[in-house]
Every structure is written in C-alpha cells, then in structure tokens.
L-aminoadipate-semialdehyde dehydrogenase
Amino acid sequence: MSSTKPDLPNPTGDLNWSAFRGVIQDNFSTNAEAHPDRLFGYPTWRDRHVLQLQRSRLSCHRHGNPESWSDFLSYRSVVPPDRQNIYLDVARPRALVVIDKGTREGGELTEKVRNFIHDNLQLRTEVPGLELKDDGTLVGGNVNSKDVLAEQLSLNSKSPGVVVRPDSTPTPSFTSGPEGRPKGVRGRHYSLAYYFDWMTEQFHLTENDKFTMLRTQLLVPSKDDIQHERLAEWMLEHGATITHLTPAMGQILVGGASAEFPALYHSFFVGDILIKRDCKSLQRLAPNLFIVNMYRTTEIQPVSYYEIPRMKDVQLLIVDRENRNRICDVGEIREIYVRAAGLAEGYLGSDELKKTKGLQNHFPRSHGENSIRVQEICIGRADDQVKIRGFRIELGEIDKYLSDHEMVLDNTTLVRRNKDEEQMLVSYIVPDMQKWSLWLEQKGLVDDTSGPEGMPKQLSFVSSTSVLDTPYFVKLSQDSATKGGSSVSEDDDLSGSVMGLGTGYGQSKWVAEYLVRAAGARGLRGTIIRPGYATGDKTSGVTSTDDFLIRMTKGCIQLGCRPKIANTVNMVPVNHVERVVVAAAFSPPKTPLAVAQVTSHPRLTFSQYLATLQTYGYNVPEVEYSVWKKKLGDYALADDGREQHAL
C-alpha cells in the first residue's frame, strides 16, 4: 500500500547556499563590455534644465566597503525634511554625497542634515564643482588649473579589486512600519544575481525588454508624468514592456486614462492587496498584460509568486507556534516561515527586529542559517497589523487612543470591506453611560438632549403588526369588533404577547418596541409605527419578489388553482407607509411617545386578493382550502425535476 502522508518540505534540505553567482557590478561590467553601444538608462524628463541622457551612453560603477552597510546615501534636498530625517535615522550612512548645485536649486541642507554630518561623519571631502556631462563624463571642478578628478580618470575602466561576499549588503530597502516610521532592510548580495535565470525563464524576459523605474529600473518618467492620464500616455509613448508597481501606483496608471499601451506584457505588483477591479482596469488598457502578484519582497528577497508554487530553492514552512521545532501537517493553522539562501541580512540599525522577525532557523544545516518569520498565518496575520492603501496600520494603536477617551468604556477596531471590495477601518465603541449626563453638563447641554443645538430629536421607529400575532390579540380583536370597538388599542403595552410569538421577526420587533417605550418613559420623543404587510408601489406595482404575499400568488400559478380563505389580510402600499412615517416624525399623534397602527381600507380577504390573478388572465380557479393544500403537498413531493420556485 502506498503511503498517504503528504509531501511536506524538508526543513534541513540543501537550498544551494554555495551557488553564489558573483557580484552584480561584475555582471554590469561584462554586459557593458559585450554591448558598449547599448543604453543603460533612458530617463524621459521633460525639464530641459535637468541632465538629458536620452541619447548618451552612460556606464556607472559604484564600489563601497563590503564590510559596512548603507555606505553611501544620495541626498536630495527637495525631499521633505521629515523624510530626510527618517532616511538618516534608519539608514545611518557612513558617507553622504551632497552636490552643491542641487542644494542651490532645490534648497539648503536642513539643520538635521548639517548636525548629522558634523556629529557622525569623520571624513569630509569637498569637490568644488561636481558635474555629470551629457556624454557621461564626470568632472569635479578646477583647483590650481587642474580638474580634481583628473588623476582618477585612468582608474575608470579598472575594477577596484574589492572582495564582495554573498552576505555583503549592497542595497538598503525601506518598508513601512507600524511605529509610523519605515524600517530599513539590509539586502544580501547573494540574491541580486542568483534568481536572474529563473525569472528570465519563468516570465519570458529578454534583452530587448524595457523596464520602468516606477519602483524599479530603467525607463524613468518625470514627476509630471506620474499622475492620472499622463502616466498611461507615457507608457504608450515609450513602449515599456515590464513594470513593477504598487497597487496604489497601478491606480494612478489607470485613473482616468484612455491611452492603450499594448507593448506592456508583464506587471509585477507588491506592497498591498491587489483587487480584481484594478486588474481588469489595467488589462483593459494593456490587452497583452500578464499580472504577477508578488509576496513579501522586502525581507524575503527570493520572493514566491501567486501563479507559481515557489521559486527555485525557496521553502514556505508552516511551523507550530508553541513548538517551533515541529513542521505542521496539512490542515493545521500555524505560522508561516520562509527559508532560502537569499534572505535579507536583517534590519538597519535594529538588532531587536532581527531577533523577532529574522530568526535563526530552527532546522539549521549550518551555523548562522536564518529563516524569516513573516508574522502571518494561513488565515491572517499573527499580529493586529493591516495594510490599507499602502499604509501599515496597527489596529491596537487605534484602540489604544480611542480607549484613552474618558467616555469610552470598551472598544475594538476591525477591518471591513465596502461594496467595491476595498478595505475600511471600523471602530466599535461602548460609551460609559454613567458619565454621559455629567459630560453633557460640562458641555453646556441640558440632560434630556443629545445635540449641541439643544433641540430634542424625534424618533420614528418602524415596527410591524407581527408583534400582535398571538391568540390573545386575535381573541381581543374579535371581542372588540363584536362590541363595536376599534380592535386593539394603540395604548396596549403588548403584555398579551410576552408569550406566544412564533417567529424571530415578531419577537425582535416586540423587544425593540419594549426598549423604545422604556426610553419614552425617560423623555424620548417619537412614534412607533406598526404597518401591516408593506406591499409594492401603488402606481407601478414594483415590489420585492421574495415577499410572502407575492410568493403566495406565484405558488397558486404553479399549482393552477387558488385556495378559498375568508381571513382578511392587512396589506398597505409602501407609498402609504412612507407618508405615515414622515407625518408621524413631524406631527406625532401624542407626546412624548405614541403608537400609530397602519391598516388598509378596505380590508381585503385572501380570496379577494388572490382573485386578482383571474382578473389579469391567469387560469387559477378557486378551490376549497383542503383541495389546494393536497395539491400543494403532491407538487412538493413529486420527483419529476420540476422547479419548486415559490413552493
């Protein structure tokens, strides 16, 4: 007998840690030597004052100390000061390059930046006139009639000979954080080139593709182009074939756009939930587009994709949260860990985050092997963090601030979806009613009002005659009619139907009326409206097809007959109910609280009501109720494939 045990991943299997493909700059150098005439980048800025590289050939080499991380930070003074502060606090660069021309045009250095340079950077070098020419030549300005970078020009084509290891940090990536500031993630050199072959084969990438720099390389739109309508036109103009977007940027791409860009055939999305509406809108403009939804690309650089079980040499492990040395079986709901050779090294400047998120693998093959705890389980996240419109939000933080209000006794915040399947935050609050009157007095309001204008509100509560559907009120109504009375009085406290209501609808309406009357005894002003069966529009006849009376007529048509029933039915057109509700709100029958029972005039019997079918051409002769009931039972029990419909 073959084993039925599921094929679970081996948490100690070899994922090719020794398959380092080499440093990324060597790949760039090799390609540049093989194809010296090809463009590296294709910026499309419209501002003529900005350096134009559209027709120039540029080869850029930047080498830093492989033992350090985030060695260089390209500073732009046009970035808002708050964001400058975040970059400096998180990245903590060892070197900061400030181009004087940029600060003159974009704004001076902030005090935060000047203090950082003074306090943290021991080595300071000034290049008097750093300039990048249109042909790719870099000059530094003249000192003693000689360019300060002249002696380094001979080294331009030579490698600096720096040894870069798989664990060296070539790139810091920033991801949003629940604390209100981003986290800097230390990438590893191993993953930069290792997955090229796999992605090229899996997504059919070629050397002729044009990548956009909407969070990736290499077509660079101007700031003016990144807006509704313009971005789609830019895509069409420059013929991008591959793009890498967040869902928010994807919405900008399709927002108000009419220009189609058929050259685009692959779009990678990451960073937030991707909904069907946005995908269809994008594919309407890019008919050849294939959308790939990526997962956890910041910390887990060897990312897995929706369309593929997993990448090469990547494992998703479902680990027991109580015993992290145990792999869960199929069907168990536990926490997700990712294991691969190309995981990020950790977080910039935060050893604590690495301890909690980038954990040492519980099933190591070698010393130092890590796995990433993604803080998600099979049915949701392991914490209370959600992501809405690109922003990470901590639900517990919202609850904390709400609970700080003196009037809030208890509260909870949840995520709901609106009609467009977009996530929304909804907070439910239980107020401390014992402090309510004191709070009103402090606000200068009278005790029996709830609005700052001091005007009491009118309540119109729509109930139902279902609260009277008990033998007690049937007998009371018959006795009253015999004596010439007006049936059940509006002043009745409904104590006769405390027991005997057979439906949840009638029971819920009874409880609601009881609460409203209790509030009326404490000063609430308003009216309880008790309509009978609210039928359709009295002019057009439009009504709910799932209503009991409508289903009764449909059932009679199916059976080919109608029952003889002498009981009356209290049917009221919905137009009339609406008028009574409005009238009771503006002019209640009595104060502070009244009851308005809405009845039909004249009151029809069931036989009269169902006879209208014959009037409108349906052949449904009237039969005794017992005959109709037998035909109904036979129809329901017949196994002839007929649709039951109303029956």
Q: What stands out?
A: The first strand starts at residue 42 and ends at 43.
